[in-house]
């Protein structure tokens, strides 16, 4: 004797009906319909009857898209909040900068000074390097080679970016 799909009792002689999805049989009373309705297959031809298991699966399937919608909405609102927070922080920084007592010219001066300092920190002044001869290009070329050799001698990987002679060329060197 097979059991009802919705309850632990056997089907027995009670009126039973088939689940329209999985074909398992269940008591008519176990469908939630009234027994005294005397429901038969013919009478409920237009009504689909599902066992509890199939109803649960169907409900979960219907609920899934809604669940995804809720999740997506939640994510979007969290992202929005984060972006708003970031914007607020940036706005506050800008406001602080604008309301700071230093004027823009002074700010630029300080910024330029800082950049200059960084650039100058990489400068090397070499004293007593013999003057090179020839035209301007030849002199620069010559000085660059000399400076490169010195840097190599003190075993650094540094390559001179620009070589500049400080001061005026001596009269003797310009005639050599
Ligand atoms: Zn039952
Ligand atoms: Zn079923």
From TrEMBL:
One term of GO molecular function: zinc ion binding
Keywords: Metal-binding, Zinc, Zinc-finger
Residue intervals of the Zinc finger PHD-type domain: 3-55
Protein name: Zinc finger PHD-type domain-containing protein
Organism (species): Zophobas morio
Lineage, uppermost ranks: Eukaryota, Metazoa, Ecdysozoa, Arthropoda, Hexapoda
């Amino acid at each position: 004797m097979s059991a009802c799909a919705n309850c632990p009792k056997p089907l027995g002689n009670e009126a039973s009906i088939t689940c329209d999805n999985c074909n398992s049989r269940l008591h008519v009373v176990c469908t939630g319909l009234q027994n005294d309705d005397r429901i038969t297959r013919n009478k409920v031809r237009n009504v689909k009857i599902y066992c509890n298991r199939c109803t649960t699966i169907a409900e979960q399937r219907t609920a899934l898209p809604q669940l995804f919608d809720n999740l997506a909405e939640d994510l979007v609102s969290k992202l929005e909040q984060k972006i708003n927070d970031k914007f607020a922080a940036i706005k506050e920084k800008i406001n602080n900068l604008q309301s700071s007592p230093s004027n823009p010219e002074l700010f630029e001066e300080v910024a330029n000074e800082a950049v200059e300092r960084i650039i100058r920190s990489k400068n090397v002044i070499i004293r007593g390097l013999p003057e090179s001869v020839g035209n301007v290009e030849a002199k620069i070329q010559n000085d660059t080679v000399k400076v490169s050799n010195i840097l190599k001698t003190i075993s650094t990987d540094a390559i001179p970016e620009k070589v500049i002679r400080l001061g005026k060329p001596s009269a003797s060197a310009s005639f050599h």
